Structure formats: C-alpha cells, structure tokens
Amino acid sequence: MEKRTLYAVILSVIVITIGFTVQTILYPPEPAPPAVEEPAPRTPDRDPAAEAPDAPEPAAPAPLIAAGEISAVPQEGISRQPQVYQSDLIRVTFSPEGAAVSSFQLLRHLDDGEPVEMIKTGAPDQKGFTLRFGGIDSPVVDDLFIHRRTDDRNVVEFYRDFYIGGREDTPFRVIRRYIFHPDEYMFELQTGFENSVNEFIPLDIDGLAYTIATGPQIGPEFESLDGRQEFRRYLTYADGRRRNVSVSAGAREQITDRINWAAISGKYFTLITVPGAADYRFTFSAEPVAGLQDTSRIYVSRPVIRSSRSTDTLRFYAGPKTPDHLGRYNSASDNAFRTQNLDLDEAVETRFLLGWLENILKFALNSISRVVPNYGIAIIILTLIVKVLLWPLTHKSYESTARMQAMSPKIQELKEKYKDNPQKMNAETAALYKKEGINPLGGCLPMLLQFPFFIAMFGLFNNHFELRGAGFIPGWIEDLSAPESIWNFGDFTLPFLGWNDLRLLPIIFVGTQLLSSKFMQSPGAQAGQMKMMTYMLPLVFFFVLYNMPSGLLVYWIVTNVLTVGQQFYNSRIKQQGSAAAAK
Fold first, then answer.
1. What pLDDT, in 10s, does the model give residues 230-258?
2. Which of 317, 347, 377 is the C-terminal boundary of a domain?
3. According to the 3-state scheme, what is the secondary structure of 327-396?
4. Are 303 and 369 part of one and the same domain?
5. Which of 150, 464, 517, 570 is the most exposed place for a label (fewest CB within 10 A)?
6. Cα separation of 214 and 142, whole Å?
C-alpha cells in the first residue's frame, strides 16, 4: 500500500473514531466516589450571628424517642392561606403545612413560557425544604404552622408548638424562618427550637434531632435525563476540591465527610446547600416518589440538640448555574450574606484541556450579541470570524490538496510501472514527493488543527447559559440550546434510534458536508480511496448530531457553506492562473 493511501486510511479511522466518541469526550461518565478518606475541608467564613451555638444544659439526657411520639399542641383557627415572597428574581410560595415551600420560581428564566420551577413534584402534597423530626425515614411534619408577620418583607417566618408523649406539660416551639435578599438567588433557612422550661429538648431519634429535605427534583421540566438535553449530578465540595458522587437510581448515598457544600447540578440550573456551624449529615437520594420516577434530593440531618434554645442556619442557592451568579459568594463585598470563599462556581463544568479556548469564544459571542440582539446571527458572525482566523491553515490545506491532485497522473504512472514491486513504487513515490516539495500530510494536518475549535464550539453551544431559550428563526429554531423540530411523531418513536421528531438542520448539515467533501475529492483512483471520507463521515455525524443543540448545527452548517465558498474561490484563482499561463 502506498504511503498516501495509508495516510488516508489512518486519517479516516481517526476522524470516524472522533465522531463516534465526541459525546463521550464531552460528557465523561461520573467517576465512582473515592474510597480514600479526604482531609478536613477548608471552612468558609460564616456569620457568627446567624447561628446560636448549642449551650450544654445541666439536665441529664433523656431516653431515645420515636418520631411518632411527637405531636403538635392543639390549636384552632390556624390559617391555611399560602404565603408568597416575590422579588425581581424569584417568587416563592409557602404552605402553612409544615412551613414548607410548595413553589420556587425563577422569574427571569422561562420554561415553555412560564418561569422555571425549581421544586419539581409528582403530587400536590410534595413540597421542598420539608421538616422531619429525626432522620430521613421519619414522617414529614405536615402540621399547620402559624405565620408570624415581621417588619422585614424579606423575612417569612412560621412557628408551631409541639410536645413529646408523656411530656405534655413542657411543650417546645419550632420556628422556621426564611430570609431572602431582593437581588440574590441565595436564601437562609433558620430552624429554631425553644423549650418552655430551662432544660434541653429531649429530641433524640436515633441520634438525630431533625432532617430537612429539598424537593423531590429540581427544575426545569424534562422528558428524560439523557445526559445531553438535561442531566442531574450530585456534587460535594471540601478542601478546595469538587467531588462527583455516584447515586444509583432508586438508591441513597450518605456523605460521611464534613463538606463545605452539597449540590444537585442540572445542565443550566443548580440547587446548592451550604451548612452552618452544626455537624450536619448529608445524604443524596434518587429514590422515586409518588408520581415522579426520576428524583434528585438532598437530606440534611441535624444531630441531637443539647440546648433549651438554639437556632441553626442553612443557606441554599437555587438558580442559574453561571460563574457570574455563583462566583459572587467568594467575596463578602459581593453578596448580602457577607459570605466568602464558598467556591460555589466550582459547580460549573469546565473543560480540562480546551476550557481556555471555550472561554475566549464565549467572550467573543457575548460581545457580538451585545451589538446584534439575535444569538443565531451572532453565531454566524462568530463562525465567519473563526473562519477568517483559520484561513491561513485551510488555504495551505487546499493548496496542498491541489498539488496532490496535479500529481495524480505521475503517481498513477508509477503504480503501473512498479505494480509488481511495491517497495520500489513507494521509494519512487517518496522521491517524487521530495522532488516536487510536497508533504503528503500537508493537506491533513492543517485540517486536524481546526479540530480543537470544533470541540470548544461544541462545549460553548451545548453549555452556554445565555443560549438557553435564545431563538434564531421564529417558528423553527426557537431555542439554540436544544434540537429544533419541524414535525413531532406524537406517541411514535423510531425503533432503535429513539427519535420522535423530524429535524431539518441535520439534513441540511449532511447536504453541506457532502458538497464540501466533493470539492475536496481527488479525481481518478484517489476518489475511490476517499469515498468513505466523502460519504461515510457525513452519515456518521448525521446520527451523532441529530439530537444536538441547534446552535452547534448552525455553526457547522455555516462553516461548511464558508468552506465551499473558499474552495470555489481557490478553484477560480487556480483556473485564472492556468489560463494566464496558457497565454
């Protein structure tokens, strides 16, 4: 086999392998939780006034109790009216039943025209930030809490008195206080306990006082967690390191180490829990609930309280997964809670090798979008800029290809002359390349050097938050972060493929890719050698890219169109040069 044919085969294998594995490269499987014990975490600065430390009481410890032994003190006339907190960013609806959250909407981010709901439930009685006495398996406290009005509109407070069986004469009060700030997605949940006598509350259920649970799932709505359109990942952060926690469907995973924060991370939104000073126990859960198969929940359990009066503080972030919003909690001057060194922006996925290039392209795209308020047009302009910057590489590739095409007759002669002596044929071919000053890989390497730009563009268009919900062509490409559709098959799904939509952009991509490949195809025998490159690769990428974001396909289609234009221009210049030489 001549060297050039071997090079073509090797290049074909490389590119096809890249095509099949591009999704694996960009969406690596979650690593299994490490078995080694991690060192103690760096503790972020906390507001000492936010929490009251447990003060030891002289009374002797009481025996363990069961969750069923705790009852609400009977009280008539408690309102069932929901309470609502609203700012420019969020609208939170509170249910008096357990003083839990029934709705947490992000007003500036839409899902099918409605605000994104961060508490996704399967039944009306399911809520977020619920309270349990004891551990995870204890029943949810759903007694009616009394709403207490405060002078601060950013504070929503509830309370209710409870007693332990056999201790009806010494009730204790539970206070649930939510504290917001108008321009932040973070809020505080303070849980207070006040005993009616000067002794600690014997709230000891298997070593735990209470557990707070987030909602069964975070929003927005999704059809499936396919890892491309949407996903859920479980994260912890401690000692400057982010850890991915593996949680099997229908299972739980308890975190035994002390951590700075725990998070449920989606593609564009995240829910992060930041513990206070108490030694909380964290548990991730993917156990199904009624009406909801795919769940992602955080349980935060509080050990026994050794005080007659105490207040614990948890902070939650429920909002966009962007460095701008999350990074403000690294500096006390940038947020109203005066927190620092939380490193919440570590919840944002980054590319290990090409993150720097993706950030440059992101900056360029955002800069263009400020001038052109249509992200689809901004993508086209950015693609044109990238094409211009890569012109020297692509032009060199086309020149090398053209020279190789011009050499085809001479190479064919060598094949015929030395068809019975492959070694001699290869030696003569190499000598011919050297004489003509041609590098057989001259047309391949410049094209391969463009591949990092494709990977960076893929990451940009697949994860760039600003592209979420950004339309291009009304009625067709409504969301550049999602696949477009011109016809939905309804309940029918294509066997094996799992497709239930007809998409136009992948078809246009195949057409432009074939046209671009045709321009690059060499005549004669070389065309047969490159047939797989010409026809197979577009077909392979058709299946790979079918359900990819529209923004990525717009980029690639525009790249192909510009490539065809560049090839046509080079051909015209070559023809004009040949005509001038003939004269």
1. 999 999 999 999 999 999 999 999 998 99
2. 347
3. HHHHCHHHCCCCCECCCHHHHCCCCCCCHHHHHHHHHHHHHHHHHCCCHHHHHHHHHHHHHHHCHHHHHH
4. no
5. 150
6. 15
Q: 140 pairs with which residues across the strands?
A: 132
Distance CA 211, CA 283 (A): 10
**Measured between alpha carbons, how far is residue 71 from residues 74, 100, 163, 169 in Å?**
9, 18, 6, 13
133: nearest Cα among 369, 304, 332, 385: 304
pTM, whole model, 2 decimals?
0.80
The number of angstroms, rounded, from the C-alpha of 83 to the middle of its chain's C-alpha atoms is 32
State pLDDT tens for residues 289-320: 998 989 999 999 999 998 999 999 999 999 99
DSSP letters of 266-335? -SSEEEEEE--SS--EEEEE---BTTBSS--EEEEEEEPP-SSEEEEEEEEEEEE--HHHHGGGGSGGGS
Q: Which of 541, 373, 552 is nearest to 464 (CA)?
A: 552
Q: How far, rounded to the nearest angstrom, does the alpha carbon of residue 9 sit from its chain's CA centroid?
A: 36
pLDDT digits (tens, 9 = 90+) for 134-160: 999 999 999 999 999 999 999 999 999
Q: Same structural domain for residues 298 and 362?
A: no
Distance CA 275, CA 260 (A): 7
Contact 302, 208 (CB under 8 A): yes
In total, the chain counts a number of residues equal to 583
Question: What is 392-418 written as a DSSP string?
Answer: HHHHHHHHHHHHHHHTHHHHHHHHHHT
Residues 144, 201 within the same domain: yes
Q: Residue 338 belongs to what domain range? A: 48-347
**300 and 319 share one domain:** yes
CA–CA gap between residue 132 and residue 191 (Å, rounded): 12
Closest CA to 294 of 215, 235, 211, 213: 215
Statement to judge: residues 384 and 246 lie in one domain: no
Average pLDDT over residues 495-499: 82
- Which neighbouring-strand residues pair with 316? 187, 273
Can you tell me the mean pLDDT for 408-433? 79
Residue type, 565: G
**CA 156-162-164 angle, 5° bins:** 150
For 550, counting Cβ atoms within 10 Å of its Cβ (0-12 exposed, 13-18 middle, 19+ buried), the class is buried
- Let me know if residue 576 belongs to a domain: yes
Tell me, yes or no, whether 254 and 328 share the same domain.
yes
pLDDT beyond 60 at 22: no
Q: CA of 339: how far to CAs of 187, 228, 313, 520, in Å?
A: 12, 33, 13, 58
Structural domains in the chain (count): 2
Using the 3D structure, point to which of 347, 378, 409 is the last residue of a domain.
347
Could you check whether the bond before residue 220 is cis, i.e. omega within 30 degrees of 0?
yes
Clarify whether residues 323 and 461 are in a common domain: no
DSSP conformation letters of 474-494: TTTB--TTS---SEE-TT---
Contact indicator for 311, 286 with CB cutoff of 8 Å: no
**What pLDDT score does 27 carry?**
38
Q: Which of the 8 DSSP states describes residue 144? A: B
105: amino acid identity, one letter: Q
Inside any domain, residue 577: yes
